[in-house]
C-alpha cells in the first residue's frame, strides 16, 4: 500500500488521509454496512481488493460467504450502480450468463449508503452472494475461446435488451479514454513518461482516434460492454462459466471487450494466438466480420494506452506499482509497430489493416 504521508488517490475522492488511514476508516464503514443487510454479528470482514472500489470478503461462523463492495466517492452515481445491477439480473434471467447476485438490505434496497467517522461523505455499498470457482490460466487458449463465446452471448443480449429508461453508465469512447474528457486521467500523466514515449504515444493516439471515427458507432458495433473482460473476471465452477466484476461496464465498442482480455500483457508473444482463440470462440455464437477482426489491434492499443493513464492516476494501488514505468516504456514499441502497420498518423489516408497474420506481426 501507499507510504504514510502520501495522499491516496484511487479510493479517496477528496479525502486527504493517507492510504492506510483511509483503509482503516473503510474497514469501520464495511463493518457498519453488513448490519444493513442483516448479516450475523460474528462475521469476519477482510479486504481483498482496492481499485476504483474496496471489496471485502465477509465470512460467517457457519461457513456462509459474501462479497461487499464499497464504492469510491464521486465515481459512479447511485443510478449508475443500480443500472449495473439491472444488467446483471437481465443477463442471468434472459441470456443464460451466470453473474453475481446482489442482495437486498433490511430496508429492501440493494444499494445502501453508509457513513463512517473520518470519511467526508457517506459511501454507497452493495452486498453480493459469494461466487465460487477458479480463474482459468492467463495462457489458456481454451479459456480465451470461452471468453469469446461468453462475450458473444452478452453482445447478442445487449443488442436486443430494452434498458430501463433511467439506465446510466459511463461511455468509454475515444474522448473519454484518450481524449479531452478521460475517466481515468490523461495518458500523458502516465508513470515514467519520457519525451520518446510521449512522441510515440501521441502519434499512436491520433491514429487510433482516426481509425475509431472511421469504424463508427452503429449499435451493432457500439453498445453496452463489460469493460474488463479478463480471465481474472471469469470463474469456472464445474461446467458453469461465471462473469464477475461489472464495475467498468458501460457504453463502448463491442470489440473493446476483446481488447480487455489481454490487459497488462498486450506485448507478450502469446497474445496473437490468444486473441485468435477469442475470435474463434466468438464466431461460434455471433457474427464477426473480417473488417471488424482486422481492427482488433486498434482496440488493443486503445486499451493499452488507457491503462497507461490508469496506472498514472492510481499510483497507490499494488497493480499500478507492479507495472509502473516499465509498462509505459513497453508501450513505445507497440505504438511504433501499430503506426507502421496501420498507417502514419501524420498523413491523411488510413492504411488498410493487414489481412492475414496482422496480430502476429503487430503484437507478436
What distinguishing features does this structure have?
single chain, 364 residues, alpha+beta, Phosphorylase Kinase, domain 1, Aminoglycoside 3'-phosphotransferase, Chain: A, domain 2, 2 domains, 5-stranded antiparallel sheet, two-stranded antiparallel ribbon, 11 helices, 13% strand, globular, disordered N terminus
Short description:
By secondary structure, this protein is α+β, with helices and mostly antiparallel strands.
Write the topology of this structure.
Blueprint: H1 19-36, E1 44-50, E2 54-59, E3 65-70, H2 78-95, E4 111-114, E5 123-129, H3 141-160, H4 174-177, H5 195-215, E6 222-225, E7 234-237, E8 240-243, E9 250-253, H6 256-259, H7 271-285, H8 290-294, H9 296-313, H10 318-342, H11 358-363
Antiparallel strand pairs: 1-2, 2-3, 3-5, 4-5, 6-9, 7-8
Helix pairs in contact: 3-7, 5-9, 5-10, 9-10
Helices and strands, in N-to-C order?
A: HEEEHEEHHHEEEEHHHHHH
CATH architecture of the largest domain: Alpha-Beta Complex
Q: How much strand?
A: 5-15%
Q: How would the global form be characterised?
A: globular
What is the alpha-carbon Rg in Å? 21 Å
Count the domains. 2
Ranges where pLDDT stays below 50 over 5 or more residues in a row are: 1-10
Query: How many individual helices?
Result: 11
Number of strands: 9
Mean pLDDT: 90
Assign the CATH superfamily of the largest domain: Aminoglycoside phosphotransferase (APH), C-terminal lobe
Distance between the termini: 34 Å
CATH topology of the largest domain: Aminoglycoside 3'-phosphotransferase, Chain: A, domain 2
Under the CATH scheme, which class of the largest domain?
A: Alpha Beta
Major sheet size, sense and barrel closure: 5 strands, antiparallel
Content-based structural category: alpha+beta
GO molecular function, one term: homoserine kinase activity
Keywords: Kinase, Transferase
Organism: Hyphomicrobium facile
Pfam family, one: APH
Amino acid at each position: 500500500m501507499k507510504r504514510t504521508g502520501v495522499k491516496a488517490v484511487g479510493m479517496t475522492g477528496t479525502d486527504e488521509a493517507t492510504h492506510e488511514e483511509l483503509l482503516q476508516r473503510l474497514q469501520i464503514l464495511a463493518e457498519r454496512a453488513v448490519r444493513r443487510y442483516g448479516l450475523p454479528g460474528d462475521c469476519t470482514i477482510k479486504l481483498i481488493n482496492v481499485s476504483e472500489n474496496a471489496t471485502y470478503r465477509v465470512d460467517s461462523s457457519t461457513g456462509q460467504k459474501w462479497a461487499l463492495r464499497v464504492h469510491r466517492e464521486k465515481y459512479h452515481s447511485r443510478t449508475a450502480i443500480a443500472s449495473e445491477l439491472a444488467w446483471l439480473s437481465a443477463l442471468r434471467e434472459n441470456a443464460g450468463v451466470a453473474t453475481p447476485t446482489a442482495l437486498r438490505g433490511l430496508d429492501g434496497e440493494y444499494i445502501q449508503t453508509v457513513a463512517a467517522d473520518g470519511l467526508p461523505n457517506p459511501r454507497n455499498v452493495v452486498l453480493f452472494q459469494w461466487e465460487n470457482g477458479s480463474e482459468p490460466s492467463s495462457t489458456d487458449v481454451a479459456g480465451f475461446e470461452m471468453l469469446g463465446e461468453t462475450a458473444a452471448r452478452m453482445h447478442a443480449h445487449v443488442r436486443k435488451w430494452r434498458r430501463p429508461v433511467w439506465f446510466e453508465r459511463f461511455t468509454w469512447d475515444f474522448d473519454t479514454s484518450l481524449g479531452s474528457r478521460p475517466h481515468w486521467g490523461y495518458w500523458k500523466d502516465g508513470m515514467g513518461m519520457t519525451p520518446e514515449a510521449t512522441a510515440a504515444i501521441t502519434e499512436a493516439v491520433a491514429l487510433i482516434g482516426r481509425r475509431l471515427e472511421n469504424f463508427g458507432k452503429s449499435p451493432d458495433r457500439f453498445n453496452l460492454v463489460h469493460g474488463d473482460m479478463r480471465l481474472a473476471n471469469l470463474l469456472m465452477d464445474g461446467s458453469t462459466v461465471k462473469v464477475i466484476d461489472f464495475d467498468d461496464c458501460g457504453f463502448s465498442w463491442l470489440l473493446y471487450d476483446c481488447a480487455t482480455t489481454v490487459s497488462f500483457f498486450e506485448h507478450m508473444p502469446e497474445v496473437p494466438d490468444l486473441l485468435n482463440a477469442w475470435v474463434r470462440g466468438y464466431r461460434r455464437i455471433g457474427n464477426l466480420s473480417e473488417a471488424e477482426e482486422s481492427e482488433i489491434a486498434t482496440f488493443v492499443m486503445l486499451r493499452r494506452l488507457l491503462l497507461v493513464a490508469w496506472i498514472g492516476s492510481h499510483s497507490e494501488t499494488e497493480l499500478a506499482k507492479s507495472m509502473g514505468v516499465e509498462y509505459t516504456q513497453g508501450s513505445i514499441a507497440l505504438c511504433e509497430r501499430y503506426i507502421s502497420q496501420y498507417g502514419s498518423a501524420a498523413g491523411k489516408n488510413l492504411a488498410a489493416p493487414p489481412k492475414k497474420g496482422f496480430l502476429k506481426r503487430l503484437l507478436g
